[in-house]
Each structure stands twice: as C-alpha cells, then as structure tokens.
Amino acid sequence: MMPPSLNSIISRLHVKQLRLLIAIEEHGSLLGAAKQLAMTQPGASKALHEIETTFGTALFERSNRGLEPNAVGHCVIRYARLIQSDLAHLREEMVGIMRGHGGRVSVGVIMGAVPLLTDAITAVSEAQPDMSIEIVEDTSAALLSQIDAGRLDLAICRTSVSQTPYLYDSTFVQDETLAVIANTAHPLADAAHVSLEDLAHYRWVVYRANMPMRRLLEREFHDAGLRFPAHLLETTSAFATVSLLQKNPSLVALVSIDVARFHTGHGIARTLPLTLSSLSEPYELVTRRGAPLSHGAQMLMDAIVANGAARGE
Asked: Where is the signal peptide (predicted)?
C-alpha cells in the first residue's frame, strides 16, 4: 500500500505531532510521552491515531512492554528529528540575523580543502565571534546532493562529478597540488627520490573509485605502464587516513599538499619525494544557482576566495 500524497501529509501534519513521536520512542510508552509533553494520555492517544492516519499506516508495535517503532516508524521518527533540528537551526539563524552577526552557516568541504576552509573560518570567527558554522566533510558528489537539498549554504568541492553542473554557481578558488605521504617510519621515508614503481607494491589509502583524486592516481599508474595496486583502503576522511598511516608504517596515501603540510608540520607523517605528472582538478566554491545567501555565508565565501588567492601567490 502506498502512503498518502506529499500534499496530503503536509496539510495534515503538525510539528507538535512530530515531538510526540520522538517522545514515544524515547519513553517507550504513551504515558511517559504524554507526561513529557504535558498532555493527557487520552489526548496523546488521539494525537497518535491522527498521525498514523496521516501516514496511512501504523508506526508502532503495541505490546505489554509498551510501544516499539516498526520499520516505517523508525523512518518517520528519524525525519522528525531532522525537522526538529532544522527548526532549531532556523531559530538560531533568525536570532543571528536580528542581532546583526550573520546567524548560522553550513559549509561542505572535500578532504584536501580542509586546511583552506579552516583558515577562512578562523578569519570569519574573529570578525563575527557569535556566528555559528557547521562543517560537513564528504565527497564532492555527496556535498552537491546536500546543496541540492538546501542543507548546505556552500561547499568547496568540484562540480565535474555532477551530471547537472548547470544547477550550481561556482567560483575558482585554488589549484590543487597532490602529494604522497607515509608514516615517518616508512621504508622510503628517508629516500632522496621515489618513483611510482617503488610504491607499486605498497598498500595505498585512497578515495573511492570515480573520485577525481582516485582517477588521477589511476592515470599515473596507467601512464607509467604499471598495474594499479590492489587491496586498497578507501576513505574520504583525513583523520582516518592519518590514523591508518600511524598504525601501519608500510601504507602510503595520496592527499592534497595542504593536508600533507599540516601532518608533516606536526611530525605526524612524511611527504615522500615523488613527482606526479598529472594535474588535479582545482577547488571550486559552489552554491545552488540563484539561491540567496545570508550575510554570514557571503562573509565566509569572501574569506575562502581571499585565502585561496593568497595561497596561489
């Protein structure tokens, strides 16, 4: 059986009903949820019936132990929590705008551009210390999906991974230079020169398939006439990457030069003297085409562009 139409759900669903669903999950009973929300038990029972009628299906399994969400119930409650969180963010941003400090900004970033973003955020935070900033690190494809959904105001990523790049406004930020890093105890850590052939038999930490950085590495091996390494460790997290390198001195990883400098500067890893012939795709500052930007989002965008320009000099 199909659920009611979206228009039907929107016209009948109320925010207080979502709060009831969350409370039922937390307490496991209608009585406990009713007490939390200052409702009578008959009133809570009636409200739950209205919610289940709105969705056209039962959301809980009823037993002597109380109420337990079924599969659909877990799904609805998960989105209820998201809506509640979004409303909290809405209020936070409204307060910020009314007080004149920009409110709240959600920004996405791919792994290699994290140092670039954190420098820009530091500058903005000094100018607007009361502004809240959410940072989401993920792949370009995932970040563009969150921009589509309105969950991110902007992102440092690449539109080349999208089949619909015309949906976005993008600005060049900075060329990306790549480096290979390893544990300070790696067998080649002190070598004067390293070739790709030298590294062909080591295990690599890389982005997953079809990501720009992964495609570049595959192209490097192909052009060198070498077989691409097997048994890869795939991650989009800089922290996971360096944690793996710390645990296994034989691993090597392809990262941006900024990420490499951060870790080598803190003595966490060593940059191997390998020269790559391929050019990586530049970073772009991406927003949804035509979407209005808050004062805080514009401030952060300006800081990112200025920081990228300074790094390129």
From this structure: none
